């Protein structure tokens, strides 16, 4: 199995590449990103190259050259950054997806492109959000994610392209800083508490959002793509979650471990607005039933691991 990860230098790709290497072998994974500095970093541990996913010709040549069977398309401009430049977000998010779909169709690759809780909107039921429900997001990021889900399903039903994906909630990790999303606070807080002993949160204290710890997110990426297609009723995209908490709850749990930690709030209206429109907690029973999704990390175990990993890093 030869696998190409496009947008490999971001929060997910940085950890997905070594995860894939462990499963499919080091030489079978190609990591590609637009930014040469990121490619330089990636090339220390993997076969890495500079690639603009919006350049269809180079993208196609790369897939041909390395005889790629499976593509992970992680290219995106994330929710908060996307609101500052909506047209750019549309062009990047949809451009990379359309090119990935066309290449997957032409060269017979399977394709994973993450969707997000950002695909939901204000009218979506916020508690126990169903797999199949109202999806009317009011952000450009969300508009791209819903369009991407529909387009990916279209390529599957119309052309038989093996497209699969999940609606990731906030992903908490300590490998690479997040790239401008609404759930970034749940990562930033650990760095700031360890470095400075205090953190100023941009999200209102009682806002609940789903989250996943990175090891579970990586398993979702590979487990779904390796799942028996005959068992999949859905494809694009599956709700997946492992925990749901508010800033207030997370900070109280951190305080139990770091009693001197201080928390303040300075609300970012863009992030507050986006987070208010997203689910409080999703129902992920379709993922559990169709491909045995079964996350291992909860909030308490994630906090312990984040604190010790970031302390070790900063020492
Ligand atoms: N991180 C999360 O919490 C989260 C949550 C839900 C969904 N997702 C989705 O997962 C995917 C990956 O997210 P992430 O957090 O790793 O994003 P990120 O912003 O950290 O990384 C994106 C990467 O794409 C690269 N890139 C941008 N334009 C490119 C182009 N034209 N060609 C090639 N590379 C390009 C960037 O250099 C960057 O390294 C995205 O689809 C995102 O919407 C992430």
Features:
single chain, about 325 residues, alpha/beta, Rossmann fold, UDP-galactose 4-epimerase, domain 1, 2 domains, three-stranded parallel β-sheet, 12 helices, about 45% helix, binds nicotinamide-adenine-dinucleotide
Helices and strands in order, then pairings?
Elements lengths: L2 E4 L4 H14 L4 E5 L2 H7 L4 E4 L5 H10 L4 E4 L5 H6 L1 H22 L2 E3 L2 E2 L10 E3 L10 H20 L3 E2 L1 E3 L1 E3 L12 H12 L1 E4 L7 E5 H13 L11 E2 L3 E3 L1 H11 L4 E4 L3 H9 L3 E2 L2 H7 L7 H16 L1
Bound molecules: nicotinamide-adenine-dinucleotide (NAD).
The site of nicotinamide-adenine-dinucleotide has 30 residues, from helix 1, helix 5 and strand 10.
* CATH class membership of the largest domain: Alpha Beta
Strand content: 15-25%
Instruction: Characterize the main sheet.
Output: 6 strands, parallel
- Estimate the global geometry from the Cα principal axes: globular
How do the SSEs run, as a string of H and E?
EHEHEHEHHEEEHEEEHEEHEEHEHEHH
CATH architecture of the largest domain: 3-Layer(aba) Sandwich
Number of strands: 16
Number of helices: 12
Mean of residue pLDDT values: 96
Assign the CATH superfamily of the largest domain: NAD(P)-binding Rossmann-like Domain
Unreliable residue stretches: none
What structural category do the secondary elements indicate?
A: alpha/beta
What is the gyration radius calculated from CA atoms?
19 Å
Strand order of the largest sheet: 3-2-1-4-5-8
